[in-house]
Every structure is written in structure tokens, then in C-alpha cells.
Design goal:
The structure holds 2 protein chains of 2 kinds. By secondary structure, chain A is an alpha+beta fold. Chain A has 8 helices and 21 strands. In chain A, about 25% of the residues lie in helices and about 35% in strands. The two termini of chain B are about 30 Å apart. Classes of the chains: A alpha+beta, B mainly alpha.
């Protein structure tokens, strides 16, 4: 049996009218989030991801569409329903932590439970429990101003899980923290989620974070969902150049299809490339965009492999975990990454190959 | 995404807040509208009632009996106002530069400087200086004469005389310095010190850097403080009212007052001159807007900086001396003067320490019906006015914290009173409220209304900055934590804004208690307030009582300002530690 979605967003549209005209923040967006699912809304600033999150929270009012939480309509433009945030049974973690500086850590965490009418003693017990879960049990009496950024965000996390709502919204919660703390909190967040089992909607512009956290990623592009799917799907099978470009780094070039079949043959500045990763609708003679990820290029060993590209090795950068190499070819620059160091031949040239499955082809303009 | 979250000015929390008004916001708008009416209505009414007199007064001002005195009055006003502003601009800018840019950072004194005019109400300060530098009985003059006698120089009067144009100009300038200091300090904080450092590394010395880089960068601020100084100088009533009589120098505000006090009252010329004064201020404000138009000061960025301080070396002691001298002049010396006079049975420059007595204090505090009821009235009015104004403006600022349009409209409404000289408010209130339908002249009600109008701008500014210091996410976090709109206001926004609101309350209270201008116009024997009673006692020559009463209000103001400093410092520590 398939369980009902925890959150249903249907045909949501939100337009900001400013003095300089209208800005469409959400354009007919639909999205379902299952219970205990971790969905990441990923996109550059201005793509509408925060607006979508705030609409679900009830902090913004969409212009049209419907939002259901646990099957209950919390917003419907047709029916004229708007349920304020305090009645939506959800929690939210903010980028700025948003802890109230005039309340102690414990008071901050008690606040949501007290507001839902629980007696003080039970509220205090549950708040202490939530603080223990995030490892801050002994800071209950401290004030937010006395804690580090990472600790403050842990308190905010405790405040979000304390009332046991089935839905927690995250608005770039880790982007104010430094790299080490961020990675640590990412892990803790995941283990909390699997332990408690809430559905999470998580907004970020950081693709690494999205890939690490998500069950499903929704890549957003100016008010629409460009693609939604599991991280592997988004990464390995992007449906458009935009998605491919935003998730991971990419070499991009233009080409013309010269042969179809199981594999596509595309004429590009790098020569003729074979692709086994393309939409069905591509036809012969069509102008297309071609995308190759730097880590999918191998330094050629076997002369018989397809998609050979040769270029002069201009520069190699050692980045610790990987090495980056810049090749100057007749058709332009190519960026590749390898684990091992590479050496050019006597002419200073290097030949790399890319398997057809790793050569992405998109219709132009996507 | 920050672009998105900043943009939604019209998005509300609920259906009704977007499509219409809640009962709460309706009451807020109504109250604010009535307060705005309170500014426009009396002035309009006064002009309508007095229309014939105004027309007739043109004749008397141009070639009638007034045509001989008015030009002198205007000339005096211009000399006092521009002279005082020029001196204040110099002192205020130097102090601001020392505090912001040199290694002689003034620390606590730097915090006190802009508050001087609050700690010592100008009327107390000027009376203090008058008892120090009266040519015959001035305490400081007497001490100086004694000193000079040792060198064989004998004088009967002097060496200084406060009742002169110089006295007027310098004392007025003392109370204009804080305006300049605040505006210039704020500007210096926003000028990127990297610009100055670039100049220094480019081979220019500190002086050349100041002249070529710093000063041009803060030119708009200098112009703004110049105009602010002129406007406040035009409205300052206490200094010319206390010193002008002895000096026989009339400035416009006191002149208008006397036109109304003469018998029969010359209402026509009074209101005509008031309108002229108002028009002058409005023209100056337009000029100020032109000068400080955004885009002209592209060098100033919004970031906060801490500059590498300019090393003053031995000059540092001069810098400290300037600051300490200023504090002595505005606060310490006048208070000392007042103290010595208030403890004597009568004002004599030769202080006989065996006859010092607290009798004057007990007289003004407990026995003299006029001063006792003035104290009670002023404190009560200050309490009501401060509470009312902070309640309305605070509720407004917090309720509409996320509504840019409402805030802008409220800013315009509440900003109007700051552009109207208090003299004009006084005249308009007298003329509008001395007849039906609102015949409240001579009552405490007219003072209440006048004070509410006059302090509205202070209150609104304090409330706005208190509300602005609370991040939007703090109240949003409360909403998603299952708290309603009202509960969020009560549990989150209000406690967080409280230190700022209390500071605003104290500002309004202190301004109300120390107010002299409108008090002189609107208060009388039936509704005495401190400002009026101080002037009366001064004019009747009850100097020890004047000094005691002035000290009493100084003590009230100083302790409240101290409380304000304590509260704001503590709340800063709470949020930033």
C-alpha cells in the first residue's frame, strides 16, 4: 500500500509585484513529499526555492494553487482557504538560527510545545529530551548569545523536532556555518531524521549538500521544477543542460546530430562524439548541446575506445582529493579530473576518452 | 533567494491583512491619523480665523509701526542662528572626528557627548551660565575679578558679559553641537577607511587626507547637520528668552512670543511671522534633500568599519581637552553655578559658606504652590505623553514591521512635527484652541496635545529603530512554533524591542519635562509647567528658586538618561555576547 503524501503542492503560483514590474517566483509548481522523505529544493538564488518553502510554512501567501498537509487543505485559492503557520503542524529551521535572545535555551525549545497547549512539566521534559538528542542537554540554562554558531543551530534543530510534527522545513540551515561543522551537522541531521521519521523539505544552493542529504532532489529554475528525482538520477541523467550545469561541473559544447540509432553520433568542435545518453526526441540534423563531466574522462590507454579527444596539457592543479587538468584542444578548452597524476607525451599532448554513456546530449535551449 | 524574501511588501499573513484592515490595525491608523490632524488642524484653523489680521499685518510689517523693529529682529536671529551653527559645526565635527578616527577615542565621554542636551536641559544650562557670567553678580566673573586684583587690575564688572550677542551665539552653539556630532559621527562610520588609507599610502599626510578625502566624502552629512543646526537654532527659545532680555536683543521666537503677550495681543503679525518661519524651515529642508540626494555620495558604503586610528601623539591631550572642555561647558560648570546659587538665601557672587541652606529646595519642592504644581504637571504630562507616544508608535512599528508601505506612510506622518519650529506650534495652538469648538487654552489638555505633537517624531524614530533591530526571522520562527500573530507580538517582538522602546520613552519624557517654547506660549497660572515657571521666576528675579528648580529637573533628566544608557548597554551585551 502506498501511503498518502505528507505534503502536496498543486499548481502553486506566486508573483511579486514590485515597482519595476512583476517577478514570477513560482510558476505553476506541483510537488508531492512522502512521509519520512527527505526532499531537497536545489537551485541558484532567485529560483523560487525559498518562496516555495515559505508558502508551505504559511509565511507567504501564494496567488493561486493548493497546498495540502497530511491530506488537509492548508491553502487553496479557489476555496479561499489560508491556514496561518501556527495551525499547520510543522516546524522550521532558519538560516539565521532565529533563536530568541531573551529566552534561555530551554525556554526556546519549550515555546512550541507550550503553544500547543501542553502542561509546563511535560513540555519541560520533552524539551530536555530534544536537547539531549542534539547533544546540548547540559546547555539548557544557557542563553543563545553564549553558544557557538553550530550549537545555536543545534538548539534550533531541537526546537524544530520537539513538538513531534511530521514535517520539518529547512531554509539553508547550514550555510552560515564553517565547513567542518557543516559536515558534522549534516550527519547528525540525517540520523535524527531516520530516528524520528519526519518528512524534511530542505532548501539549499549547495549541490554537495543536496546530493548528500536528499532522498529526492528538486532542481528549480526560475519558478519551475526543472527536474525531480533521486540524487543519482539527477547527476547521471539530467534532463536538461540547466540541471546538468547546476549539479556538478561540466564541459559544454555545441554540436549537430549526424547519425541516430542506439548511439547518437554528434559532430562537435572536439570531433565526432558518440553518445548513449540522450532524449528519444532527438532527430538527425538537429542542433544539440553536449555535456561531459570532467570526472568521466579517462586518460586514454586503449587506442580502440570511442570519443578520443587530444589536447595540449596546459596546466594541472592539485586539489588534494583530486587533480584538475586543463587541456587546450583545437575545438576549445577541456577540463578533466583524475585521482592519479597524468603525464603528457613528448609533444606536451594528452589524449582522453569518454564512454558514450557519459556523453550527455540535450536539445538546444533546455 | 534573499532577493525574494526582501521583496514581498504586500504579502500578508492572512486574507484580511492583505485585503483590508484588522480591528487592531484600524485603531492604529485612526490614532496616527488623528495625531497627524493635530499637526495640521491648529495651523490651518489659526490661518482661517486670523485671515483678516494676517492681511492687515502685512501693512504694519511693511510700513507700519513694526517695520522698524522686525528687520532688526530678523538680522539678530540670522546672526545668532548662523553664528551658533557655524561654531557648533566646527566643534561637533572635530569631536566626531576625534571619536571616530583618532587614537584619542573618547570612550564613555564619546557616548555622553550627544546626550549632553538631554542630561542638562538647555534652559537649566543657560540659567547656569547666566549666574556664572552675569557682568556684576556672575560667580565666575567675581572669582576672575578677585584673581585679577592680585595682578593689580581692578574692575567693577566683567570681565565677561553673558548678556551680549556673543553670549547668545556661544550658549546656543553649545546645545547645537550634539546634532552635528551625531550626524557627522554616523557619516564617518560609513566612510570606508580604506579610502583614507589609500590616500595615506599614496603619500598624503593626515591633514591633507582629511581635507582632500574625508571632508569631501562627508560633505552631505556636513550640509545636513548645518541645516539641522539652523532649524534647531530657530526653534530654540530658552537661550534667547533668558539672555535676550538683559542683552536687549530680540530674536524671532521671543519676538513672536511678546507680540502675543502684549496688550492687545498682536495676533496678526505673530502668525504672519510664524508662517514665514515655517516657510523658511521648509525651504531649508528642501535644500537639505537636494544636498543629501542619494547617488551623490557613492563613496559611502553601508558596511561597518573600524578605521586604523590616526595617531595624534602629543596632540591627543589637546583632543581630550576639547572634549572635556565641552563637557565642562554644557554640564559641569552650569550645574556648579546653579548649585551655588540654589544653596544661598539670595544670589550673591561672594559665596558665604556659613549661610548655605537647603531652604530653596524645600521651598520649590514643597511650599511654593506654583513650583509644586508645575513639577507635578510636568512630570505627569511627561509620563502620559511618553507612554502614549511610545505605545502608539511602538505598536505601529512592531505591527507593521513587515509592511514597507505602511511604514513609509507612517514615517512621513510622524516626521512632520520635526519640521515645524516649536514657536509655530505654540502660536497655532493658542490661536486655534482659544475659542469654540475646542476651547482648551489655559488647561492642561492643550499642553498635553502640544507635547504629543512635538515629541511624536522622537518617539516614532526610537520605535522604528527598536523594531528594525529585531530580525524578521525571529517572529517568523515564533509563527511556525505555533504562536499566533498577537502572541508573537507579545512574547517575542515586544520583549526584544523593549530596551529600545524604554530608551525612546525616556527621551520623550526628558524632552517634555525640559520643554520651554510651547510651555511659554501655552502655560499660565492655571496650568503651570516647569518651562514656563522657570522663565517667570527668572524674570521676577527669584534666582535661588530658579536655580533649585533647574537643578531638580536636571537631576530627573540625568538619572533617567543614566538609566537609559544602562538599559541599552545591557541589551547590547545580551544580544552580542
Amino acid at each position: 500500500m502506498v501511503s498518502a503524501p505528507r505534503v502536496s503542492v498543486r499548481n502553486l503560483t506566486k508573483v511579486y509585484r514590485t515597482r519595476r514590474g512583476a517577478h514570477v517566483a513560482l510558476d505553476n509548481v506541483s510537488l508531492d513529499i512522502d512521509p519520512a522523505e527527505f526532499v531537497v529544493l536545489l537551485g541558484p538564488s532567485g529560483c523560487g526555492k525559498t518562496t516555495l518553502l515559505r508558502c508551505i510554512a504559511g509565511l507567504e501567501e501564494p496567488d493561486s494553487g493548493e497546498i495540502l498537509i497530511d491530506g488537509k487543505v492548508v491553502f487553496s485559492s479557489k476555496a479561499g482557504i489560508y491556514v496561518p503557520p501556527e495551525k499547520r503542524h510543522l516546524s522550521m529551521v532558519f538560516q539565521s538560527y532565529a533563536l530568541w535572545p531573551h529566552m534561555s535555551v530551554l525556554e526556546n525549545v519549550i515555546y512550541p510545545i507550550r503553544n500547543s497547549g501542553k502542561p509546563q512539566r511535560e513540555a519541560a521534559r520533552r524539551a530536555q529530551d530534544a536537547l539531549d538528542k542534539v547533544g546540548l542537554g547540559k546547555y539548557a540554562a544557557a542563553y543563545p548569545g553564549q553558544l557557538s554558531g553550530g550549537q545555536q543551530q543545534r538548539v534550533a534543530l531541537a526546537r524544530a523536532i520537539v513538538s513531534g510534527d511530521g514535517l520539518v522545513l529547512f531554509d539553508e540551515p547550514l550555510s552560515n556555518l564553517d565547513a567542518k561543522v557543516r559536515e558534522r551537522l549534516r550527519l547528525e541531521l540525517l540520523s535524527l531524521q531516520s530516528q524520528i521519521g519526519f518528512a524534511a523539505v530542505y532548501v539549499t544552493h549547495d549541490q554537495t549538500e543536496a546530493l548528500a542529504l536528499a532522498n529526492r532532489i528538486a532542481v528549480m529554475d526560475v519558478g519551475t521544477v526543472a527536474q525531480i528525482g533521486a540524487p543519482e538520477e539527477i547527476y547521471d541523467h539530467p534532463v536538461s543542460r540547466y540541471v546538468a550545469d547546476f549539479v556538478g561541473s561540466a564541459n559544454e559544447l555545441e554540436g549537430t546530430v549526424v547519425g541516430t540509432g542506439d548511439a547518437l553520433r554528434v559532430r562537435t568542435a572536439f570531433g565526432e562524439l558518440k553518445s548513449a545518453n540522450f532524449p528519444k526526441s532527438i532527430a538527425e540534423g538537429q542542433k544539440v548541446s553536449v555535456m561531459i563531466r570532467p570526472e568521466h574522462c579517462d586518460v586514454a590507454a586503449d587506442a580502440n575506445i570511442d570519443n578520443r579527444i587530444t589536447g595540449r596539457l596546459v596546466r594541472s592543479l592539485y586539489l588534494g582529493a583530486v587533480r584538475q587538468h586543463f587541456l587546450e584542444t583545437e575545438g576549445g578548452e577541456l577540463l578533466i579530473t583524475t585521482q592519479a597524476p597524468v603525464t603528457a607525451n613528448a609533444d606536451g599532448n594528452l589524449t582522453v576518452t569518454c564512454p558514450p554513456l557519459r556523453v550527455h546530449v540535450f536539445a538546444q535551449g533546455t | 533567494m534573499s532577493v525574494d524574501s526582501a521583496a514581498p511588501s504586500q504579502s500578508g499573513f492572512t486574507w484580511w491583512s492583505r485585503s483590508g484592515l484588522t480591528p487592531f490595525s484600524f485603531v492604529l491608523w485612526l490614532t496616527l491619523g488623528l495625531m497627524a490632524l493635530l499637526i495640521i488642524y491648529p495651523l490651518g484653523l489659526a490661518i482661517v480665523y486670523e485671515y483678516d489680521n494676517i492681511v492687515a499685518s502685512f501693512h504694519s510689517l511693511v510700513d507700519g509701526p513694526l517695520s522698524r523693529t522686525v528687520p532688526t529682529v530678523i538680522l539678530n536671529t540670522l546672526i545668532v542662528v548662523f553664528g551658533a551653527t557655524a561654531i557648533a559645526l566646527l566643534i561637533g565635527s572635530i569631536l566626531a572626528w576625534i571619536n571616530e578616527r583618532s587614537d584619542a577615542s573618547l570612550g564613555f565621554i564619546g557616548q555622553l557627548l550627544p546626550l549632553c542636551a538631554l542630561i542638562v536641559p538647555p534652559v537649566a544650562g543657560v540659567i547656569g551660565w547666566a549666574v556664572l557670567l552675569d557682568p556684576r553678580a556672575g560667580l565666575a566673573n567675581f572669582a576672575l575679578r578677585n584673581l585679577l586684583e592680585h595682578f593689580g587690575i581692578t574692575m567693577r564688572t566683567g570681565p565677561f558679559n553673558i548678556y551680549t550677542m556673543w553670549g547668545l551665539v556661544i550658549i546656543t552653539s553649545l546645545y547645537t553641537v550634539p546634532y552635528v556630532f551625531l550626524v557627522v559621527s554616523a557619516a564617518l562610520q560609513r566612510v570606508d577607511p580604506a579610502m583614507e588609507e589609500a590616500s595615506r599610502t599614496g603619500g598624503a599626510g593626515p591633514i591633507k587626507t582629511m581635507m582632500r578625502v574625508t571632508l569631501p566624502a562627508i560633505r552631505p552629512a556636513l550640509a545636513a547637520s548645518l541645516l539641522l543646526g539652523v532649524i534647531s537654532g530657530l526653534s530654540l527659545f530658552s537661550v534667547p528668552a533668558v539672555l535676550g532680555g538683559g542683552a536687549r536683543i530680540d530674536v524671532i521666537s521671543v519676538y513672536i512670543f511678546r507680540l502675543l503677550q502684549s496688550y492687545p495681543a498682536q495676533t496678526g503679525p505673530a502668525i504672519t511671522l510664524s508662517i514665514g518661519l515655517l516657510a523658511l524651515v521648509q525651504i531649508l529642508l528642501v535644500l537639505q534633500n537636494l544636498v543629501t540626494r542619494p547617488g551623490r555620495n557613492a563613496a559611502i558604503s553601508g558596511k561597518g568599519f573600524r578605521a586604523t586610528p590616526v595617531r595624534l601623539g602629543k596632540l591627543r591631550w589637546i583632543a581630550y581637552a576639547v572634549a572635556v572642555l565641552y563637557l565642562l561647558a554644557t554640564a559641569v560648570l552650569p550645574i556648579l553655578g546653579l548649585l551655588l546659587v540654589s544653596l544661598q538665601p539670595f544670589w550673591t557672587p561672594a559665596v558665604n559658606f556659613s549661610t548655605l541652606t537647603l531652604a530653596n529646595f524645600s521651598f520649590v519642592l514643597f511650599e511654593n504652590r506654583q513650583t509644586v504644581s508645575a513639577l507635578i504637571n510636568s512630570v505627569t504630562l511627561g509620563f502620559i505623553v511618553a507612554s502614549f507616544n511610545m505605545l502608539v508608535t511602538g505598536a505601529f512599528a512592531l505591527h507593521f514591521a513587515r509592511n514597507g508601505k505602511a511604514r513609509k506612510l507612517a514615517d512621513i506622518l510622524t516626521g512632520i512635527p520635526a519640521t515645524i519650529p516649536h514657536t509655530v506650534i505654540g502660536v497655532a495652538f493658542i490661536l486655534a484652541f482659544s475659542r469654540e469648538p475646542l476651547r482648551i487654552y489655559g488647561t492642561t489638555a492643550i499642553l498635553l496635545l502640544a507635547y504629543i505633537v512635538m515629541t511624536l517624531s522622537y518617539a516614532a524614530r526610537a520605535a522604528a529603530s527598536a523594531a528594525a533591530s529585531i530580525g524578521g526571522e525571529l517572529s517568523e520562527a515564533s509563527r511556525v512554533s505555533k504562536a499566533s500573530d498577537m502572541k508573537t507580538l507579545w512574547r517575542i517582538s515586544l520583549p526584544l524591542a523593549m530596551p529600545g522602546l524604554v530608551a525612546g520613552w525616556i527621551m520623550v519624557f526628558v524632552h517634555t519635562v525640559g520643554e520651554v517654547t510651547a510651555s511659554a506660549f501655552l502655560s499660565g497660572t492655571h496650568n503651570p509647567v516647569i518651562g514656563r515657571v522657570l522663565l517667570d521666576l527668572w524674570n521676577f528675579g527669584n534666582f535661588p528658586q530658579v536655580a533649585s528648580l533647574a537643578l531638580v529637573i536636571t537631576a530627573i533628566s540625568a538619572s533617567l538618561v543614566g538609566l537609559m544608557l544602562f538599559i541599552t548597554r545591557r541589551s547590547q551585551r545580551l544580544t552580542t555576547s
